[in-house]
Amino acid sequence: MSDQVTSFEQFLQAQTDNVSELLDVMKNETLAIASRKSSDIASYAKQKLSLIQTIQLCDAQIGKCPEAASPSDDAKQTISEIKAVLEQCHQLNEANGIALQRAHLSIHKLRNLFQEAAGKHEMTYDSDGKASGSRTLGTNVKA
Fold it and tell me: Model's pTM, two decimal places?
């Protein structure tokens, strides 16, 4: 039975390590977003996805342990700490998502400004609000 307790504790320790690593990756992602390093942002996104899958697998293994039904006080404390770190990860992910949306919108607006500078009279907009230049706009109209 001590082997089961050890494996349960090992799973909790592994999960603690996983969520701590996820938090570190997300902090690095925040820095990459702030410095607009797109290759780093993509790399951190892949790392996040891999870690989330690892966390889910570890969580399933923890759920299969008999000790999970009635954990010790130490295990309850560790589980509480894991949940707190995951909440930090969730909040950071939300903030990073908002920052990425704003960056995308800024780039979209800047692209529109460049297109407008090329010729305001040639600008049209599609249903998504994306600007495009059309040199043939209205040239095929016969009135």
Answer: 0.71
Orientation angle between helical segments 73-118 and 2-35, nearest 10 degrees: 20
Element (H, E) at 23: helix 2-35
Nearest to residue 29, comparing CAs of 47, 17, 16? Answer: 47
Cβ–Cβ under 8 Å, residues 23 and 89: yes
Tell me 138's DSSP state. Answer: T
Burial of 1 (0-12, 13-18, 19+ CB in 10 A): exposed
- Identify whether the C-beta of residue 32 lies closer than 8 Å to the C-beta of residue 44: yes
Q: Rounded to an integer, what distance in angstroms lies between the CA atom of residue 85 and that of residue 50?
A: 17
Which tens digit of pLDDT belongs to each residue from 40-92? 999 999 999 999 999 999 999 999 999 988 999 999 999 999 999 999 999 99
